[in-house]
Amino acid sequence: MQTKEFKIKWGMVIDIDKCTGCGACMVGCQVENNIAPMTKKDPYNYVQALTTDRDDAANKLRTLTWLTVYELSNGKTFPEHEVAYLPRPCMQCGNPACVPVCPVIATDKNEEGGIVSQIYPRCIGCRYCMAACPYHARYFNWWDPLWPEGMDKGLCPNASPRPRGVVEKCSFCHSRYLKAKDKVRAEGGDPMNLPDGAYTTACADICPTKAITFGDLNNPEHKVHDLAKSKNAFRLLEKLGLAPQVYYMSEREWVRKQGDNYNGNGGHGAPATNHG
Amino acid sequence: MDSKLFPEGTQRCSFGQFLIWLAVILGFFGWGLYAAVLVLYNGIGTTGLDNYFGFGAWITFDLAVIALGAGAFFTGLLKYILKIKQLEKIINLTVIVGFICYSGAMLVLTLDIGQPGRAWFGYWHPNVHSMLTEVIFCITCYCTVLIIEFVPLVLEQKQLNKIPFIHALAHNMHINMALFAGLGAFLSTFHQGSLGGMYGVLIGRPYAFREGFFIWPWTFFLFVLSAVGSGPVFTVLVATFMEKLTGKKLVDFKTKALMGKIAGSMLCVYMFFKILDTWAWATGYLPSVGLTFDQMFYGVAYGKWLMWAELGLCGVVPAIMLVTPSIRNNPALLYTAALLDCFGICINRYVFTVQTIAFPAMPFDSWQVYYPNWVEYASSIMIVAYGFLVLSLSYRYLPVFPLETKLNYQSGE
User: Fold this and answer.
1) How far B117 CA lies from chain A's nearest CA (Å)?
2) Residue B43: which of A104, A164, A273 has the nearest Cβ?
3) What was the pLDDT predicted at A271?
4) What is the mean pLDDT of residues B124-145?
5) How distant is the Cα of B61 from the closest Cα of chain A, in angstroms?
6) CATH of the domain spanning A10-257, picked from 3.40.50.720, 3.30.70.20, 3.40.50.11740, 3.20.10.10
């Protein structure tokens, strides 16, 4: 297992105990990154109009949600029953499963900061990366992206919309990174040493309970540096060796235990699971 | 009406009958074509695939036909390189079946990728670390080799072959066929392996991940072995099916039994390593990542019965049947073993494609079940119809079976 290291390593620490499952992060992500909503009808496609409808947002296995909130359950009955919410962006793995499998280098991990890129005009839509990612962090454009009239006026100028037939995923709001570096440069600072908070993601920005902390995991002046090392911090599926740059923390042991498999005690197939 | 085009000394059904037969095939083909148009025009959303199942029926179908089409390269290798003369009685059919399987798989892949217009990126922006890149390279190159192997057979068509230049060209291509057979064997071995490697390298998918040798996971070698352990008998099944359909003897049973023996021997080798691999995976790798063998299975679609069927009924049983001369030399038992063998390989390709991604690696996630919809079935049936079409035309007009006249029209043989 080779983990790719960089001087700067952008990462997240998500405090599950603070997450209320409100879904604001998902909305923020959707708006920031121009993620296409799901519409049943496509008024521009007459063949579609003659055949079956497209999926609407009710089909959670077809929606585009770069960040999705999973519901965790401790599996016990009332009054011991407890739930927790786990927001899942792209883990930006240090040893990503998706990058080496892409046949056309449409996804790579080669930029300072360690963000796994996704190059939409390069992607051929084979979906091999989706098959490779155990976190289900990758999404495919099953239909032509369509914004209902009026919604197109709210498109964010910083993120390029994707065509049908390519894979997309969370980029840690990469355009915000570029803007933050530009701003620091203009102010005469060092873009390789951004102060804590100069660059942050939409989900971290919008979270009402500040459950998501974002920063450089390698920089001791950033909060995430210490948070990621705290005793309650863990990463998802660490045993598989993908070395995610997203950390979670919880004071509850049952929550921490759901971050990985423990030879049969993981609670597989538990019914209390939601996508989104 | 078209009897002047038939191979030398053979009889075929009337042209009218043949047209009715073609119409039936084209009916199925048309249905699939409609599905294909929907996929290309409306998008892959028309299928049963989703974000949990990026791979499904199409990829399973692709992998299965490519494995079953392996008869072409392996028989070619044995005939042209190892000079097993007996195999020339079936070699033409193996080439045609191989050509159908590979060109069919490529057609399905153009539907399966979201941006078919970018398919050439595999050559333009290749990622040398990706097993899929190797698959793209080898499948396209090998399909070209199969076309080169198919061309002389077309040139040997009775009327075409009367033209001196074409006669000479076909003859010269035949003489140099060993080169292409060798090239084909090399390319085909590699991509059969890469298809297995595609799954074995998935570090995030415990159902499929395997350790291996150098850069190749064990699945690389297992897929090669399973393909050569089933491809030859698939050709036998195709030949037998054609015999039932046409009411003629096309390949002598001795050749079929030899193909059974070849596949059986390879299947034995395969099963030995496959069982070892499964054992090591279940007792070594899975516990090391905190999983248990039982966790890998779910319900009927991903149940243990599939594994036992694959390894037992459709693995060890046909392997023993095919290597035992007394069983192999009984036609009914040979065909039964061949069918089981081919089913086993299809199950293997299915579980590696679908069960691999169905297993929820995150403990709080749940199993999802994938159902292909009519669009995927219809487009796959389109490929089968395409195969029927190519085989029907080849059988009617090309000298595919060298023994046909001897076995059917000459008395006392």
Assistant:
1) 8
2) A164
3) 41
4) 91
5) 15
6) 3.30.70.20
